[in-house]
Amino acid sequence: MKKILIADDVSVSREILRSMFEADYEILEAADGEEALRIIEEQKEALRLILLDIFMPKMTGFEVLERVSEDDRLTKIPVIVITAESTAQNDMKAYEFGVADVIAKPFARNVVTRRARNIIELYEQRRDIEKQLEARTEELRASQLRLEKNNEFLVNALSSVVEFRSIESGAHIVRVKEFSDIILNVWVALHPEDHFSSGDIKQMVMASTLHDIGKIGIPDEILLKPDRFTSEEFDIMKTHTTIGCAILERFKIENSDFYRYSYDICRSHHERWDGQGYPDGLVGDDIPIWAQVVSVVDVYDALVSPRVYKPPYAIPEALRMIYAGECGVFSPKILECLDVARNRIIEATKQLA
Any catalytic annotation for residue 76? Predict the structure, then answer.
C-alpha cells in the first residue's frame, strides 16, 4: 500500500493529519527529525508524500530536508511543510530545499487534502513520464546499437573486398583500425579544444577501414605485382585514393559525419604535412586530422609488416624512420601523439602480428 509520512512532534497534529489520509494511504508517523529521516530512508520506495513540521526535537525539518537533498532518490518524494512558524524567511528556505508546498498552522482540512492530493498526483504523473522516457531511451539506445552493428557489418564487408584482392590488405586493414583508435584517443586527450566526442572517434576509426577501398579499381597486374612498381605503375597505384572517393560518392549521405570522415581518409591518407603527398598536395592543417592519423599509422604498418619486396623493419627502426621524416613529413602534433602512444602501439603490433 502507498504510504504517507507525518513528521510532527505534536501528537494532536499527527492525529488530525492521519484522519485526513488514512482511508487511502498507510500512515507512518515520526515525532522527531531523526525518526523521520530513518523512515524516509527505509520507506523511500513506498512513500508518496511527506508532511513535515519544521521545528522538531533531535533534528529540525530543515536538517531533514538538507539530508534528503543529498540523495537524488529521496528528492523524488514530494514534501509539504506544515508549520506554525510560517514566515517569509522560513518559507523561502523550505522552497530552496525543493519542497512542493508550505502550509501554515492552523490549517483548513480541505485545503491540506486538496493540495496534498494534487501534489501526489503531479509527482506520480512525473514518475510515470520519467519511466516512459527511460523505457523509450533504452529502446532508442538498443535501436542505435543495432544500427551501428549493421553499419559496422556493411563497412567491414566493403573493406573486405580489398582483402580478397590482396593477400596483404586484410591484416593491414585490421591493424590500421586498431592503431588509428589508439592515436585518435591520444589526440583527444592532448587536444580537447577539438571537442571530438567518443562517437566521433568511433566513426573515424570505422572510417579508417575504408582507406584503401579504391584498390578495388587497380588492375591485378599492378596490385598483385611481387616487386617494386615502376614510376608509371606507381602513378596508377596512386589513383586508388580518387577511385576510392568515386566509390564512396555512390553511397553519399548529405550531412553525414561518417561519410565525411571516410571520404577525407580515403582521399588524403597519402597527403604529407609539407605538401609532398598526393593526390592534392595538401599542406599542413589543410589535411584533416583523421586523415593525418590514418596516414601515419598506414606508413607505420607498411614498415613493420613484410612485403613481397622487403622484409619487415624492426619496430624501433620503423618509428625512428617516421620521426626522422624518411617516409614523408608528418605534423609535429601527430608525431607527438605517436610518441605518447608508443608503448600501446608497440604492444598492439605484437598482438596483431
Answer: no
